[in-house]
Amino acid sequence: MFRGVGTAIVTPFKNGELDLEAYERLVRYQLDGGVSALIVLGTTGEAPTVNDDERERLVSKTLEIVDGKIPVIVGAGTNSTEKTLKLVKQAEKLGADGVLIVTPYYNKPTQEGIYQHYKYISERTDLKIIVYNVPGRTGVNVLPETAARIASDLKNVVGIKEANGDIDQIDRTVTLTKSARSDFMVWSGNDDRTFYLLCAGGDGVISVASNVAPKQMSDLCAEFFGGNIERAREIHRKLRPLMKTLFVETNPIPVKAALSLMGYVENELRLPLVSASEKTVELLKGVLRESGLL
Hints:
The model has no long low-confidence stretch (mean pLDDT 97). The chain has helices spanning 20-32, 52-66, 81-94, 111-122, 135-138, 144-153, 167-180, 194-199, 214-225, 229-245, 253-261, 278-290, and strands at residues 4-8, 13-14, 17-18, 37-40, 72-75, 98-102, 128-133, 157-162, 185-188, 204-207. Helix 1 (20-32) runs parallel beside helix 2 (52-66) and helix 11 packs across helix 12. The protein is α/β, with parallel strands linked by helices. The chain has an eight-stranded parallel barrel with strand order 1-4-5-6-7-8-9-10, surrounded by five helices.
């Protein structure tokens, strides 16, 4: 579906409403920075607080601006298989290139339940599907064997966004899924693990940091894929303070504050999330200056 950096893009708000003018500026910043895909309405896009009408407007606006230059992937995961399918069908109708589906949260399905969830959806859509494994948010973990079973059996499930912090599990997921199906892709769901996942044989990152540093994150992957491993490592080390600072509070609180400092969006979130603390803002100013972004 894509190799390199897919930006999990924020959803700008202004006075409680979608700010599509700011959103267009941000999308164009991503395109100019050379990212390989956009992921709309993921965790970073505050999907739980966006209603159906806003969802449709945001996806349509993204497709209009991108105009086929890169894939547009829509976050469609919920903890109900039927509700998830409804969002997948909406994305399909709007013309998205694929969907990102987080594992069901709170109800804690077994490994068999996780497999059946993706099987049910994959049999009812032709869209490309990316599994999103983020145990720290969902309370469930897609084990490497389950990911390999999905890769083997469900042909329109094209890859997994792996946000498990366990490097050993990531390594096993890459090994088992690519043994099951060579074109199955694995993206890091953590910016600071991108370099390591690439070394393990992964395909890139679905990134928060690329909201503020699209070119730098794209360069990291491009240098690695071009065989310039030392240069990729240098970029990783240079960006690491930024990657870490963007998670000192719950994502997307810091990244919205950073984009606000850079003049792209208002520093406005929807409850229950609130704006970054003054301490975080000061930290962000420092790392953005060090990275040449402010």
